[in-house]
Amino acid sequence: MKFTRVPAEQAGGHVLGHHVFHEGRRVLRKGTLVGPSQLEALRASGQRAVYVAIFDASDVGEDQAAEAIADALASHGSGIATTSPHGGRIALQTPLSGVLTIEPERLLELNCLPGVTLATLANHAVVQPRDTVATLKIIPFGLPRSVVDRACGLASDRILAVDPFTPMPVTLLVAGPAEQETGLLPRYREALALRLQPLRVERLVSTYVPLDDEPEAALSLALRRVLGPSTPQLVVVASDTATMDDDDLVPTAIRHAGGEVELVGAPVFPGNLLVFGRLAGATIIGAPGCVRSPGLNVVDLILPRVLAGQDLTRRDLAELGLGGLLHRG
Question: How many contiguous H segments (helices) and E segments (strands) does the chain have?
């Protein structure tokens, strides 16, 4: 495609590059294919020259290019739906409640193609039905077929997808001295319930674990009791004191119960003192004290992904450090 300025009488058969105004009123819209009636409007408006897009035989119009790329993005069970193209732009929406997952390197490669732009929500954003998760815009009025084909190839490789929430039970274990139950349990439960509201949780069960002279054994026993033999779920463990070491109460109790600890300490503030582990098919989150607050913290970054069925690794948690400073000042 060639974009150039031509005498108005030579614009026929080409796509108008800019709006045309006459006496303060728009008479022709950019992107219009110039035919006989448009040529007459140009003459009547006194235009001597206009910008036009001159297509080659292999060029694909902006709407057709956008539609082809958007269809590729929405393929392969991505949880993405397309809208109708207009002016080379298509909004990509989701019918699901879940977590938007993006492949940054492939997104970058797509956006490096000439004339193709795909803007998305942040990676791992929580989305609800009918949310717009991305917008695709073709910049010129047309693209070479080779560019469209390359973009479709990249787009069909799941650059973005919505992982739907999997309804599952969530258990909250709060551990501390017996006399603190009435103070600690409601605070943790209320804050966690608020976080779980948009995440389609099946149910939330909360239990207080009184700690005695053998706190690791008490918490370990509580963990084994809340996990059924075949019911995958999420267990959030909170204590009256934060986890300060890999051999502290919560990670030790997870190991004593037969589980494994993936991580102690996360590159996120608030929430550095996080514990993340697994036991009997369940994910165990040892929540830092900041989870009692409704303010944004590390648990808000992790809960949606776990509830969307993502099997988080130590690397996934380490990657939270980029953007992990959640509060300024």
Answer: 9, 20
